[in-house]
Amino acid sequence: MNSFFTAINCMDGRVQLPVIKYIQEKFNALYVDMITEPGPILYLSEHTEHQLASSIFYRVDLSISNHNPKGIVITGHYDCIGNPTSEDEQIIQIRKSKAILEYRYPELPIYGLWLDDNFNVHEVG
Q1: Kind of pairing, strands 4-10 and 110-115?
Q2: Which domains does the chain have, with CATH numbers?
Q3: Mean pLDDT of the chain
Q4: What pairs with residue 95 in β-bridges?
Q5: Per-residue model confidence (pLDDT) at position 82
Q6: What is the Cα–Cα distance from 79 to 62, expressed in whole angstroms?
């Protein structure tokens, strides 16, 4: 059986492979549906009525209905051009985004990830 995971990630090319590799290793997923926007945690945490947030939810819904993922990750990262704020603020945004996703998708585990200045992945509780 194919195992999928869904990742809501920044469009920044530096963060794609580290997130995919982390998900494949940590969660034993074969495939990752990558939903990208510049700074998605900004929209999910603070502007859920914005068209970008609606677009993200639409794509997550497609991933769930077609690939039955085993979970969802939401990520933020160092030096984000779409959300140029501090690590502390992004951690808060990741936690808020995670809570919104948990409410919207209670059947799936949701994980927050932060990528540091070396693009190492850290889980955010």
Answers
A1: unpaired
A2: 4-124 (3.40.1050.10)
A3: 95
A4: none
A5: 95
A6: 29
At residue 82's C-alpha, the angle toward residues 44 and 18, to 5°, is 85
**Residue 13, by phi and psi: left (phi above 0), alpha (psi -120 to 50) or beta?**
alpha
List the one residue out of 18, 30, 46 whose CA is nearest residue 118.
Answer: 18
Distance CA(46)–CA(87), nearest Å, equals 16
Query: Is the torsion defined by CA of 108, 114, 115, 121 positive or negative?
Result: negative
pTM: 0.94
Average pLDDT over residues 77-81: 97
Which residues pair with residue 97 across a beta bridge?
Answer: none
Identify the band that residue 2 occupies on the pLDDT scale cut at 50, 70 and 90. low
Residue 46 — very low, low, confident or very high, per pLDDT cuts 50/70/90?
confident
Contact by Cβ (8 Å): 29, 70? yes
User: What values do phi and psi take at 110, rounded to 5?
Assistant: -120, 135
Regarding beta strands 72-77 and 4-10, do their DSSP bridges make them parallel or antiparallel, or are they unpaired? Answer: parallel
Owner of token pair 């494949």: 24
